[in-house]
Hints:
5 helices, about 70% helix, elongated
Amino acid sequence: MQDYQLLAQFRYLLARFLAFSEQAAQSEGLASRQHQALLAIKGYPGGAAVTVGDLAERLGIRHHSAVGLADRLVASGYLTRRVDDDDRRRAILALTGRGEQALAALSAAHRDELRRIAPLLEPLLRQLGSLERDG
């Protein structure tokens, strides 16, 4: 029974964090998925150039959905898209100054929220970890 309560509490805290994240993105004039896209591009492993295909993979969406998402972010001034010099079939995505500013504000707010909920998450994660070892 305790494992169900722990899992339920984890889902509850996760849902609260996601609701916070959605609200924070909206306050910056972005949809939640747009915020996720900016973060995926800026936080891409190794700082490598990010293609539309990379974005689709990182967000777990179809390529054509990533194209539409990138189109909207380019039109809104948050991203640039350029043709890859090495492979002209690929489009490289990068944040603009506006995108960098929005992401910086959102990242600061998210770090603050994570610090706020960490005291609730840390013991919960420890308990979940001990259930796995014991179970």
